[in-house]
């Protein structure tokens, strides 16, 4: 499980996680303006803006009022309030089955807020932090049990997580994609072409590394499936996240984590350079646009 964090790191983590969750809920309410919401809360709209950007953290009472104004109730409200009161316990980061998906998401956002670097290996699809809204919707909407409202809420939450790599002090992110991720048909060309163009744009950010690796050649450990490696400031240990069809788990044992670190290094050695990777993506865009 996750070890206890230094107080300063925990505070930064809580503020960023809370801001991401609140921002996602606000963005989901397209009929509510920042000024109108601020008036309802009795605060200046610039104060509300700082809350949503994670520059200032509101206390639990303010968060409760904000969620009430946004109409957030039930489990979602309790999950956000748990973060507002101090964040989820480490034990909630590993929650099996569908009932724990939302809890796991809070844990993921917590780690994305704390991490000093993040590496993701995604052999078959574009990672969530790099997905466009349409690409994310094309994936999430395939959940047969999700209502249209559920789909839109989950899409908004996924896009809200991208704040981690787009904020003023962005999380350095290394995205290792299998070549099938850019050659897939998720959502068809009308979804894939804008998604591929977005990959090219986001890769121009200094803190984003994007490289493609082959998966149809000789054996390598990445063929066993995706993983995400979170590195934290010392003395905190690194953690690995593994996602499955309906469950997710975390690996924090030092020997196992070291194996994943070595695998990430191996995949970087096997992968095409960033320039060659972007050239391959541009070729794929051109091919799709001309057929």
Could you describe the 3D structure shown?
Helices cover 52% and strands 11% of the residues. It has 13 helices and six strands. A six-stranded mixed sheet has the order 3-2-1-4-5-6, with helices on both faces. It has two domains: 90 residues, 434 Repressor (Amino-terminal Domain) (Orthogonal Bundle), CATH 1.10.260; 177 residues, Endonuclease, Chain A (2-Layer Sandwich). It has 291 residues and is α/β, with parallel strands linked by helices. InterPro entries: Cro/C1-type_HTH (IPR001387), DUF5753 (IPR043917), Lambda_DNA-bd_dom_sf (IPR010982). This is Helix-turn-helix transcriptional regulator.
Reported CATH architecture of the largest domain: 2-Layer Sandwich
Average of per-residue pLDDT values: 84
Task: Using the coordinates above, name the CATH class of the largest domain.
Answer: Alpha Beta
Strand order, largest beta sheet: 3-2-1-4-5-6
The proportion of strand residues reads 5-15%
Largest sheet: 6 strands, mixed
Number of helices in the DSSP assignment: 13
Helix content bin: 40-55%
CATH fold node name of the largest domain: Endonuclease, Chain A
Q: Report the strand count.
A: 6
Task: Determine Rg (CA atoms, Å).
Answer: 19 Å
Name the poorly predicted regions.
1-11, 87-101
Q: What coarse outline follows from CA principal-axis ratios?
A: globular
Class by helix and strand content?
alpha/beta
InterPro entries: Cro/C1-type_HTH, DUF5753, Lambda_DNA-bd_dom_sf
Pfam families: DUF5753, HTH_3
Organism: Amycolatopsis samaneae
Protein name: Helix-turn-helix transcriptional regulator
């Amino acid at each position: 499980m996750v070890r206890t964090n230094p107080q300063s790191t925990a505070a930064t983590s809580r503020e960023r996680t809370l801001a991401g969750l609140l921002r996602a809920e606000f963005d989901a309410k397209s009929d509510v303006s920042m000024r109108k919401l601020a008036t309802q809360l009795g605060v200046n709209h610039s104060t509300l803006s700082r809350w949503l950007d994670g520059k200032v953290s509101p206390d639990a009472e303010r968060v409760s009022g904000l969620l009430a104004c946004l109409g957030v109730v039930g489990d979602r409200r309790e999950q956000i309030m748990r973060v507002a009161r101090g964040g989820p316990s480490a034990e909630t980061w590993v929650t099996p089955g569908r009932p724990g998906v939302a809890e796991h998401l809070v844990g993921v956002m917590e780690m994305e807020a704390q991490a000093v670097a993040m590496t993701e290996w995604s052999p078959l699809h574009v990672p969530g932090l790099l997905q466009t809204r349409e690409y994310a919707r094309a994936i999430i909407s395939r959940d047969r049990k999700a209502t249209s409202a559920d789909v839109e809420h989950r899409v908004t939450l996924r896009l809200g997580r991208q704040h981690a790599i787009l904020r003023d002090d962005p999380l350095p992110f290394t995205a290792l994609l299998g070549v099938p991720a850019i050659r897939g048909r998720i959502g068809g060309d009308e979804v894939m072409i804008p998604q591929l163009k977005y990959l090219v744009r986001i890769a121009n950010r200094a803190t984003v590394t994007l490289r493609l690796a082959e998966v149809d050649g000789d054996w390598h450990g990445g063929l066993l499936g995706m993983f995400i490696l979170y590195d934290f400031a010392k003395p905190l240990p690194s953690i690995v996240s593994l996602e499955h069809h309906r469950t997710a788990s975390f690996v924090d044992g030092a020997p196992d984590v070291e194996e994943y670190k070595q695998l990430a290094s191996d995949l970087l050695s096997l992968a095409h350079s960033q320039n060659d990777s972007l050239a391959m993506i541009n070729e794929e865009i051109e091919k799709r646009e001309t057929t």
